[in-house]
Design brief:
heterodimer, A: mainly alpha, Helix Hairpins, Four Helix Bundle (Hemerythrin (Met), subunit A), 2 domains, disordered N terminus, B: mainly alpha, globular
Chain lengths: ~300, ~550
């Protein structure tokens, strides 16, 4: 009989397994726990994290076993060329769906900046309502004074970029440099696998993970400054809302990407991956390039323009 | 351990590769399965259960609307019923039913053993019962369940929403994750697992429509996730996306929602087009007319679906240029849709037709979906939409495309492929009874709503002016006929599974396609070796 590894005329269908249904249950526990906590705190009652943490634990443990099993199956030679192609399609279109997730927030930023805020400022055919309700409001971006400043206290300062000469003292500029560099380092790591140079792979991939972590630390620092010194919060109106949702979800995705790359680094140290068999690493690196591209969009549309 | 290696010991040409894992026994089979047929069955039964639950909610609504005045439920509960009826039917009944059909049919039709990513397939399904468990449980929470309409417009769904909206948001996130994983799986299966020789333009129409639907899902479900996330932040983290006091805009919610919502409409109808494009040729004993143009029409409709969303919001305030753009773009959709309807008609033209149950449902689909299409064209015209907006005319329109449209095609598909799935024939007489009861019921329910809508009856209101009484009474009678006739469907299915006569491999004389080259019932793993794609099995 044909060898499953090379012969795509033989299909491999995995065994039944308990992972998916338990994962679904874990996710449900995590999300309902979180929802209960949110509702409790919003109503001024003490909320409990217990259920959320248990649900997250189940989710994480199942994912660990699930991925371990897929890796083990691949090492036994069960994943044939066709399945590997399915993985490529899978991660590719998953990244596309992530792009669309960010598209919703970029769309919101665009709509708010270009349409909603100018109407509120009295521009255009629909501007009359804004004129009547909030005659004081002026349409500028970043919005430094909201229509109702009592409900939504405006920020004292925005994150908008200074003139080019000031960029050396501008934290988001460093974050841009770091992420772009990390895209390059992960590419060097990929070339290293293709050359079969394991030492180089470990070095450059480790460097990428490090850059990811530095980015996250700087991003946290930026948030601390925003909240403590600039009065820029989630509640400071549409500028703060769009700023934090875009950079926040990007930061969350950088966290996921860093964890993925960290796992790949640990796998590399264990001797996983060969020039022709390194899909897990490639998937993580594609994801990493994706979060970098999103950051470039953020830097242009949220910070600079 | 590997199935492939086990199979070495008993190299049975039909079953190698997977010969040692037939269905498990008992509940474990359904909880842990990686088999596309088992998962398809789960999806279909789940969606039927949701159809019944959503149907009961509809009947509560129709009971209240049987007469003017408030008789049976209080308005707050009425709002929860209309909202949950819509959400459950869209996300719980129609969409999972089509995913169930895709699970059963796509691997068989492209000549694959299973879906490309079987374990993720199981996850896609099992998320759903949990998600809908959360959603239905909101009805029993303090403050009641979602009551802001299935479109959950802000600020009804943010500032003025019951606490349970938080749970609703996470339920939507879970459904979205399920749809995205399902779509990725279907795309990978179609693009990567086709039998040698099955080029893209030889793919069965159902496969084509699902490929395009999967892309629509991938593009818009994340946007839905994004918009509910912004709701969550507005509710709990004091952001002002949809609050003008902070510089946001409630109309922005509607734009983002309908950017998801309009492609969503086509997500629920494109696979229906695929189903009908199999059934009409089979019972006309002719190949599908204009296969290539059918593919291009579906692709065009999918593309247009991304640039028409604001026709749902003509009355909320939009610059004139915007109204004109969205009006004309919407009317463009009539062209590819017309291509499809004419091609179906031409397929039947001079065919040697017979009228078994699936064919009856498919023909009813063509006629009644076209009625829904025409009323859609009327609604697309911005100046007259000011009259129709938020009236029962809209309700009649979208129920015509969703009930005798999407739902009829699902029922037709179940009858058509039932022998292939179970190896048994259903009872034709009972099937026809089910059809006629449904056909009559659906028209009595929804046709009068055109008139009450044109006369100005608003939707989503538990009480109405006296002049609408007759049409509403008719509607309610029709709804009960239609609702209870689905129990006939249930009977036909169960009776067929238990007592049906054995079915042949090619269960219908005129049926074409790889699935009909398999025995009935189809083996647990459809094709363990890629089959030959012969020209006479192409294009139904």
């Amino acid at each position: 009989m044909a060898n499953a590894e090379t012969d795509s005329s033989v299909y491999y269908v995995p065994h039944n397994g308990w992972y998916p249904v338990v994962l679904a249950a874990g996710v449900m526990l995590m999300l309902t726990g979180f929802a209960s906590w949110l509702n409790a705190t919003s109503n001024g009652e003490p909320g409990s994290w217990t259920q959320t943490v248990i649900g997250f634990g189940i989710t994480a443990v199942v994912l660990y076993f699930w991925f371990a099993k897929v890796i083990a199956e691949n090492q036994q030679g069960l994943a044939n060329e066709q399945l590997k192609k399915s993985y490529v399609w899978g991660i590719g279109w998953f990244i596309f769906s992530e792009v669309m997730f960010f598209a919703a927030f970029f769309g919101a930023l665009f709509y708010a900046r270009v349409i909603a805020v100018s109407w509120l400022g009295g521009e255009g055919a629909k501007g009359l309502t804004g004129e009547y309700l909030w005659p004081e409001f002026e349409a500028v971006w970043p919005v430094m004074s909201n229509p109702n400043n009592a409900l939504f206290p405006p920020p004292e300062q925005s994150m908008a970029a200074p003139a080019l000469t000031g960029w050396l003292g501008y934290l988001p500029f460093y974050n841009t440099v770091i992420l772009l560099t990390s895209s390059w380092t992960v590419h060097v790591a990929h070339s290293a696998i293709k050359e079969g140079n394991r030492k180089k792979l470990n070095t450059w991939l480790g460097l990428t993970v490090l850059l990811g972590i530095i980015f996250l630390i700087l991003q946290a620092e930026e948030y601390i400054v925003a909240y403590n010194d600039m009065g820029l919060t989630l509640g400071s109106g549409i500028y703060g809302s769009t700023f934090f949702i875009l950079t926040g979800f990007h930061g969350f995705h950088v966290t996921l990407g860093t964890v993925m790359l960290l796992v790949m680094w640990l796998r590399g140290l264990k001797g996983h991956f060969t020039a022709n068999d390194c899909f897990g690493f490639e998937a993580a690196s594609w994801y990493w390039h994706f979060v970098d591209v999103v950051w470039v969009g953020l830097f242009i549309f949220v910070y600079v323009l | 351990m590997s199935e492939v290696i086990h199979a070495d010991h008993h190299d049975d040409a039909d079953h190698h590769g997977s010969g040692d894992h037939g269905p498990e026994k008992g509940l474990a089979r359904w909880l842990f399965t990686t088999n596309h047929k088992d998962i398809g069955t789960l999806y279909l039964w789940f969606s039927f259960l949701m159809l019944l639950i959503g149907g009961v909610m509809a009947l509560i609504v129709r009971t209240e609307l049987f007469q003017p005045g408030l008789q049976f439920v209080n308005p707050e509960f009425f709002n929860q019923m209309t909202t949950n009826h819509g959400l459950i039917m869209v996300f719980g009944a129609i969409m999972p039913a089509f995913v169930g059909l895709a699970n059963w049919l796509v691997p068989m039709q492209v000549g694959a053993p299973d879906m490309a990513l079987p374990r993720m397939n199981n996850l896609s399904f099992w998320i759903l019962p949990f998600a809908f468990g959360i959603m239905i449980s909101t009805l029993f929470m303090e403050g009641g369940g979602p009551n802001f309409g299935w479109t959950f417009y802000a600020p009804l769904s943010t500032t003025y929403a019951p606490d349970s909206v938080t749970f609703f948001i996470f339920a939507v996130h879970m459904m979205g994750a399920s749809s995205i994983m399902g779509s990725i799986n279907i795309i990978a299966t179609i693009l990567n697992m086709r039998a040698p020789g099955m080029t893209l333009m030889k793919m069965p129409m159902f496969v084509w429509t699902w490929l395009i639907t999967a892309y629509l899902l991938l593009a818009v479900m994340p946007v839905l996730a994004g918009v509910v996330t912004m709701m969550l932040f507005d509710i709990h983290f004091n952001t002002s996306f949809f609050d003008a006091a902070g510089g946001g805009d409630p109309v922005m919610f509607q734009h983002i929602f309908w950017f998801f919502g309009h492609p969503e409409v086509y997500i629920m109808i494109l696979p229906a087009f695929g189903v009908v494009s199999h059934i009409l040729p089979a019972f006309s004993r002719k190949p599908l007319f204009g296969y290539d143009s059918m593919v291009y029409a579906v692709a065009s409709i999918a593309f247009l679906s991304f640039i028409v969303w604001a026709h749902h919001m003509f009355t909320v305030g939009m610059p004139l240029a915007g109204q004109l753009f969205f009006m004309y773009a919407t009317m463009l959709i009539a062209i590819p849709t017309g291509v499809k309807v004419f091609n179906w008609t031409a397929t039947m033209w001079k065919g040697s037709m017979t009228f078994e149950t699936p064919m009856l449902f498919a023909i009813a689909f063509v006629v009644l979906f076209t009625i829904g299409g025409f009323s859609g064209l009327m609604l697309a015209i911005a100046p007259v939409d000011y009259q129709y907006h938020d009236t029962y005319f809209v309700v009649a329109h979208f129920h015509y495309v969703l009930v005798p449209g999407a739902l009829f095609s699902i029922i037709a598909a179940v009858y058509f492929w039932f022998p292939k799935w179970t190896g048994k024939m259903y009872n034709e007489t009972m099937g026809k009874l089910h059809f006629w009861l449904s056909f009559i019921g659906v028209n009595i329910t929804f046709f009068p709503q055109h008139f009450s809508g044109l006369a100005g009856m608003p939707r989503r209101i538990p009480d109405y002016a006296l002049q609408f009484a007759d049409f509403n009474m008719l509607s309610s009678v029709g709804a009960f006929i239609f609702g209870f006739s689905q129990l006939v469907f249930l009977y036909v299915i169960i009776h067929g599974i238990r007592n049906g006569k054995p079915a042949e491999g090619r269960s219908w004389e005129g049926a074409r396609g790889l699935e009909w080259t398999l025995p009935s019932p189809a083996p647990y793993h459809s094709f363990t070796k890629p089959p030959q794609v012969r020209d006479e099995e192409v294009h139904g």
